[in-house]
Design brief:
This protein folds into 4 domains: 9-197, Sulfate adenylyltransferase; 217-403, Rossmann fold (3-Layer(aba) Sandwich), CATH 3.40.50.620; 415-477, no CATH class; 488-635, TATA-Binding Protein, CATH 3.30.310. The protein has 21 helices and 28 strands. The longest helix is centred in the middle third of the chain and has 22 residues, at 218-239. The structure holds iron/sulfur cluster (2 copies). The site of one iron/sulfur cluster (SF4) has 13 residues, from helix 18.
Length: 637
């Protein structure tokens, strides 16, 4: 069997035919027969064409910075975007096969800015007055060095600020990219030279509309369409089950709908309306329903996000209880009722989309919907292939793509970007206002503050490194202080949206009073890693990964539902044991390892603990923990 590798670990290229000025999906250009040249792009390399609003955004941000002449150079050109690492939306911008820079969303200012690459600086230099002249007399290797204010001439009328990236023009004609430093007007270190080039980089005179790009890639598009159609046919024949298509209203499932339509008329298309869809998506699906010969079945979630969020808190990238309540539950119910003997469902999942999808199999049994087999015909397709297929077939796609969305999901999806959340605010202010009000209230009741919400920290339970740096720099408290004294627990279980385990249960235990202490005492269940900064602790217990957060949120991941449930119940009961401990000392005597002692009138577990959990059984507060907290919502999972 072919080994599956994560596309993020492979070097990524976009091929370009400079003769015809078109991106290529394979080495050969179908227009001129020539070979494409590799343009290195960030992994996983899921480049896509910029659609309406993104196109305007790129042109606006560049021309605001470098003047309107730039519009002339890129008129009639297809702009390619490619996701790059960053705090929020960050896209490499490629025009005429030149990676001219990066478009990034600033979560502080809530606006986009363009940062040129050295190739971009060289290409813009002839169009713009916004550049800094470097005086002569500098010697040696200059990249990485600083220019003093006396070394540079800022043209009249040009105003620069600290933090601005600038084009540097050297007396020998070399071009540089620099960044202006704080207090540059009086500094020996006014501009740092980030990069330099001798190359003459020019925009092409040849236009490249989408129709031309399709022609240049016709052969490859035919090959991948045939391969995906053959796969669909073979999968249907092998399965013998009724055929369904999962239609989300997004571009990938649109391709699947078209491909399956070409193979069979005997399929049912199912759209799960989570109740959190963008109105544009609902309108689009309704338009597709009218257009399609066969009905698109809409299955709607009956859950209300804000009611559920009062119990569970806001969903987060690593705490997506909403996927289960609003999506998985209605799918499972619909399939169970209508396909009692199972079905094969074709879905638009693609390997290049996300880390969690990178290692997927092409055909898989859905462990949460008995009898449902999921199959992914375009698993290996890249975004550019998807878009060229859609344009070549003249398919109508969701209007949200033209409004600047790169992926279509629920309007407030925590897995989305802050830039998309801002866009959702612009499109649907009332929806945004209600949810934002909830976020502010939730954060306030936990002493998390407005900045915590404004900068989007609510999207995580475990924060990425860059967000932790921002929190430190801006002095944002990340550790919630939960008020109230009564214990209560609620939970949701289902598919885990990550790559390591199959099953997760998300729960919230309200009423925890001494979170810091749990970092020590939960060692009775497994070796605990505790982060005070993040208000989070983790341990492994009976093969399950357990995370507990200061907010009271608990996430258990496991390969088995039964194990996950057992680990959650044990975790909750152990927390209650130590929260309600009356220091009776029974467990001190019970532990054969002598790992338990009383320190400052509290139970302390030391390093000799082997996490056997036997002391739990000797403790009355553990045994009677179900009298303190109603476990019925956990038992039902
Ligand atoms: S047996 Fe339970 S109540 Fe008694 S000291 Fe140990 S943890 Fe506390
Ligand atoms: S009985 Fe002792 S060794 Fe076992 S979990 Fe409790 S403290 Fe640790």
């Amino acid at each position: 069997m072919k080994k599956r590798t994560d596309p993020r670990n492979r070097p990524s290229y976009l091929r370009w035919c400079y003769e015809c000025n078109v991106p290529l999906l394979r080495k050969k250009c179908d227009l001129c027969g020539g070979k494409g040249v590799a343009v290195a792009i960030s992994s996983p390399g899921d480049a896509r064409p910029a659609l309406e609003e993104d196109r305007l955004l790129v042109v606006r941000t560049i021309s605001e910075e470098y003047g309107p002449q730039i519009k002339r150079a890129i008129k009639g050109k297809t702009i390619i975007l490619n996701k790059a690492p960053g705090i929020d939306r960050t896209d490499e911008v490629i025009i005429d096969g030149i990676k001219i820079g990066v478009l990034e969303f600033d979560i502080f200012e809530k606006e986009f800015r363009f940062i040129p690459s050295i190739e971009g600086c060289a290409a813009f230099e002839r169009f713009t007055k916004r550049k800094i002249m470097v005086k002569g007399g500098l010697k040696g290797h200059l990249k990485g060095k600083y220019l003093s204010y006396d070394d540079i001439i800022i043209p009249k009328g040009q105003v620069f600020e600290a933090g601005d990236y600038s084009i540097l023009l050297f007396p020998d004609g070399n071009i540089g990219k620099g960044i202006l430093k704080d207090g540059f007007q009086h500094s020996e270190k006014a501009v740092k030279i980030l990069d330099m080039t001798k190359e003459d980089v020019c925009f092409s005179k040849i236009t490249n509309p989408i129709e031309k790009i399709i022609k240049a890639n016709r052969g490859h598009l035919n090959i991948i369409e045939k391969e995906a159609s053959d796969f669909i046919k073979e999968t249907i024949d092998a399965s013998g089950k009724p055929v369904t298509v999962a239609f989300s209203g997004g571009k990938d499932s649109l391709v699947i709908l078209e491909l399956v339509k070409g193979v069979t008329n005997e399929s049912e298309t199912i759209f799960i309306d989570t109740g959190l869809e963008f109105p544009e998506t609902v309108a689009y699906v309704s338009m597709m329903q009218k257009k399609a010969k066969k009905k698109i079945r809409c299955v709607r979630s009956t859950k209300d996000l804000l009611t559920e969020a009062e119990v569970f808190g806001p969903p987060a990238k690593d705490y997506r209880w909403c996927c289960k309540t609003h999506k998985l539950a209605p799918v499972a119910e619909y399939i169970g009722l209508n396909y009692p003997d199972g079905c094969i469902t074709f879905e638009g999942k693609r390997r290049y989309e996300s880390f969690s999808r990178a290692l997927s199999r092409r055909v898989d049994n859905n462990p949460f919907v008995p009898g449902q087999t999921s199959a992914y015909p375009i698993l290996e397709w890249r975004s550019l292939e998807v878009w060229l297929f859609i344009f070549s077939k003249g398919l109508r796609y969701n209007s949200l793509y033209d409004k600047g969305f790169e992926r279509i999901g629920c309007w407030m999806c925590p897995a989305g970007l802050d830039s998309e959340f801002e866009k959702a605010k612009e499109l649907h202010p009332e929806k945004h206002r209600k949810f934002y009000k909830f976020l502010l209230g939730w954060a306030d009741s936990r002493d998390l503050g407005k900045k915590y919400v404004r900068l989007g920290f609510w999207r995580w339970k475990s924060y990425p490194k860059k967000m932790l740096e921002i929190a430190r720099e801006k002095e944002i408290n990340l550790v919630p202080h939960v008020k109230g004294s009564k214990y209560s627990v609620s939970s949701v279980s289902g598919i885990v949206p990550c790559h390591d385990k199959k099953f997760s249960i998300e729960a919230v235990l309200n009423g925890i009073k001494d979170f810091e202490r749990l970092g020590n005492v939960l060692n009775v269940l497994g070796s605990v890693s505790y982060s005070k900064d993040m208000g989070a602790l983790r341990f492994k217990s009976s093969g399950c990964d357990v995370s507990v957060f200061a907010s009271g949120h608990i996430v258990v991941k496991s390969d088995s539902k039964a194990d996950a449930k057992k680990a959650l119940i044990e975790t909750v009961r152990t927390i209650i044991r130590f929260e309600t401990c009356n220091v009776c000392g029974i467990c001190v005597r019970k532990c054969e390892r002598k790992a338990i002692s009383v320190v400052d009138d509290k139970i302390h577990i030391d390093g000799s603990c082997i996490h056997c959990g036997k002391c739990n059984g000797s403790c009355q507060t553990y045994v009677y923990s179900d009298k303190v907290v109603d476990m019925s919502r956990v038992e039902k999972v």
